[in-house]
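FAQ
Q: What does a multi-component entry look like?
A: The components come first, one per line:
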Amino acid sequence: MATTTIIKKHEPSIGKRLRRKEDPRLITGTATYVEDLQMPGMHYAMVVRSPHGAANIKSIDTSAAAAMPGVAAIFTGKDILHIAGVPCGASLPGLRVPDHKILAQDRVYFVGHPVAVVVATDKYVARDAADAIEVDYDVLQAVADPEKALAPGAPAVHPQWPDNTAFTFHQEGGDIEKAFKEADVIVKERIVSQRLIPSAMEPRGVVASWHAAEKSLTLYTSTQVPHLVRTLIAQMLGIDENRVRVVAPEVGGGFGSKLNVYAEEALMSFVSMKIGKPVKWIESRRENFLTTIHGRGHVDYYEVAAKKDGTILGIKVKLIQDLGSYHQLLTPAIPTLSVLMLPGLYRSKNMSADIIGVFTNCVPTDAYRGAGRPEATHGIERMVDILAAELKMDPAEIRLKNFIRNEEFPFPTATGLIYDTGDYAAPLRKALETVNYTELRKEQAEARKQGRLMGIGICTYGEICAMGPSPATPAGGWESATVKIEPSGKVTVMTGVSPHGQGEETTFSQIAADALGIDVEDILVQHGDTAIVQYGIGTFGSRATAVGGAALHFALQEIITKIKKFGAMLLETEDITYSDGQCTCNKTGKSISIKEIAGAAYRAMKLPANTEPGLVATYFWEPPNFTFPFGAHIMVSEVEKETGNISIKRYVAIDDCGNVLNPLIVDGQVHGGVAQGLGQALWEQAVYDDNGQLVTGEFTDYTMPRAHMMPWIESGHTVTPTPVNPLGVKGVGEAGTIGASPAAVNSVVDALSPLGVRHIDMPMTPEKIWKLVNGRNA
Amino acid sequence: MTQSVTITVNGITETHEVEPRLLLIHYIRDVRGLTGPHIGCETSLCGACTMEVNGKAVKSCSLFTVQADGASITTIEGLAIDGKLHKMQEAFWNEHGAQCGFCTPGMIMTTKQLLDRNPNPTETDIRHGIEGNLCRCTGYQHIVKAVQAAAAVKA
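Then the predicted structure of the entire assembly, as tokens:
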């Protein structure tokens, strides 16, 4: 069976701009998202929701709805008392955790709060029936603004906690008092990171199917974390976890909003158990805006102490986090990530942070692309610019002065992290060269002489990615991978991460193809089905490749060891090399292909000593640290005085995410991230009125970037591989978002600085800018 | 109360009894079983449900099925002919114009029409041509590149 035929030399795929393996189904409209699923006997559910921010429920009359033909069942709060509340995975000392029932009991806490569910044979009938359910409310005064919620006499969101404070949290490092005492200059600013609506293009959706005879549940759900959903839904409903199968089919974007366990996932499971039929619930866009988690929601009070040469001595912040009405999975943990990120890229080891977590009558906030890190970076990068302006220093120069030096890595931060590696000046220098910074400043001086408002904004950001070491995460931070060489020699990879647009079917195929020396097309990557894939954590926190890819790397090493055992046996030698999809005897030059080895391993006529049949390896990898990507973004803008319009002249993003497996995909991640960061800086804001009504409840009012609003993004890289994982990759999903908002605001503030403007809160709408320009000129 | 409609979708003509209020997107997805066009907002703001109705790219959540009686419709599923991808599909693949893929079918139908009407669009033309279609993943840049690439292919 052994041959001397040389199989074609494997061309490395890592680093190539390979087009994606997932795309054929997406571009032909044949991918299957939750809403595309059909099952015999399928029923359709609609959720009746509170129209009030705060109210007592006096009565619910379901009689008219129940009498409608096609209506199978209606359930209200009294029917679900046995189901545990929506879980909060974050634990903080003294955290107040409201009981988050999946249907409201006697009171509603936010507009959109689920009050009843109706299920019918047809979705139009379900909608009609939902409209026919009469809920009588006693409306109460809501409070939707976190600072107003903290004021004495504010309405209590939860009556048992009249101060609306869910928790307070303090962390400090170094000697902050000394730093402020020794300062030549102290700058202070109130900086808002407004509430945002993640707005994945696919709203949430659930198909729940209970199989009474097996006491088992299949739950299709649009999620980033199928295994986590399985564990928690099983707990909530009291079903054996091994009898719950969760499937994340094609998932149309998440950005953190699907890193959660939602009331509807448990509710539809309950409904299916009750009626004995599969139940489909698809969130409308309006519901998505009202009830899927929001992001950000900070009001931060910063103080920075510095020497007059620009050396930063210390950073203080009081951080007010708008939590909303309940804790979703990670709600209270998000601002603690801001605190961890507080030192940014700078050497100062003196830091003090206080968080106040505030209940409001709004939908909960939770992880949205960046999750706590954009808020911190925005604050720090604004403060550095404010300090530079105060000291009349160049914003690039002050950053270069304060960066952690290359020789100081691994660098222990004031917040207890160990930054793995870095060369922080490199992306900044590259970005400055790209825009030709010196010339650009001359151009700006000229523009100012002509009375034009031109701005140059710099942001140098750091990240905490590859979430993360398990002790530092609420639910385990490892990741898993299985590699199966099938009897035919084709390769199946099963990953515990759950991609929903990030392209790991392609990048993980590249990792496997290069390790095994075979074609990318010979590899199939499976994910997102708990009945197929070993337990995994999921996709979030820029972790999929840096943690899941590393797990795959180690599983591949194990499988290669086993391949070599079979190869050695079959070639009757100990002296063997594996490359290009074959084992070769180093003495005779005889080779045997992975296909032949796989056939022999499953046929098992003969086995190597102490070796089991088959070719399967599973690896659970625990990362020793986070990774810490970094980069520099520069935005050049010009403000039109007459309209307040901001035009983006150039946008340069230089990111260092370590080794780049597929530059095409990495570019896409950066572009999308920048769009969301610019969205926050320029257009997006979730606005609640004083009654807790979401004023920006549709795409008409919530200004998500459209194509004509976006600049051309000039993206580039520096490459500083991380030592934390064997691939040297750091994660890139959130980089663009984190870098963009400070670059944008710094740019526009720079443009308006001749008018005395030193800070602008986001979003920088034309109205706000026009007022700043004309109010001062008037 | 139902009404009879006869509609040709991707070359296949069928007659169905439908409620007058049935949205065209629901007819295409639920009655005709074509789930390529997606529902992202149901209010004509996102464009995920875009399909060609009598040769015009239309947001199908903003039409009732009965308004399309007698129409000829092409959905994303009808774009490839005999397994050969339309040049816009190929370009979206080559240029990484899709990430999560949810907006992609609508985006491809819109950009196909954009090129039908303007075979040599500028970047600005492209950006304005797709401003009715929302994408949350790509920042639009690779979509713009895909349209440019497709425009360069003269079939």
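Q: Is there any commentary attached?
A: Sometimes. For this entry: Chain B touches chain A through 58 residues (CB under 8 Å).
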